[in-house]
Design brief:
The protein is built from six helices and three strands, in the order αβααβαααβ. The protein has 129 residues and is of the alpha/beta class.
């Protein structure tokens, strides 16, 4: 899909490719080999796009959320939610709005010099990776 989207961006000579990854792509998670591999692969893909398309004014970045307040995480038992929150330095799950704010920034002209980046929105869960 990204390759196809680049056609229009190349004509414009500007644009943003923004991929949504996961902290799991950097730190791994037991029982989630396929998920971790696919999210990690987004980083390599974005960095390749950044090198290929940067000279044409197109940036490519990955936003990597940690645990997010969603219907899926709401179904976790309270004990498990508490265990997860303790592992996050900020002590809580992220909101969808917090991720959207970062995506909005990366899509804006203010982020025109950011490309090939992995941008964590994970409360510090994956720091150092």
């Amino acid at each position: 899909m990204a390759r196809r989207a680049t056609r229009g961006l190349l004509k414009l000579k500007r644009g943003r490719l923004i991929f949504v990854g996961s902290v799991v792509g950097s730190v791994g998670s037991a029982g989630q080999v396929n998920y971790a591999a696919s999210k990690s692969g987004l980083v390599g893909m974005a960095r390749s796009f950044a090198r290929e398309l940067g000279s044409r004014g197109i940036t490519a970045n990955v936003i990597a959320p940690g645990f997010v307040e969603t219907d899926m995480t709401a179904e976790l038992e309270e004990k498990r939610r508490a265990e997860i929150a303790v592992s996050v330095p900020l002590g809580r799950f992220c909101s969808a709005e917090e991720i959207a704010t970062v995506v909005g920034f990366i899509a804006s002209p203010k982020a025109s010099y950011i490309t090939g980046a992995l941008i964590p929105v994970d409360g510090g869960l994956g720091m150092g990776h």
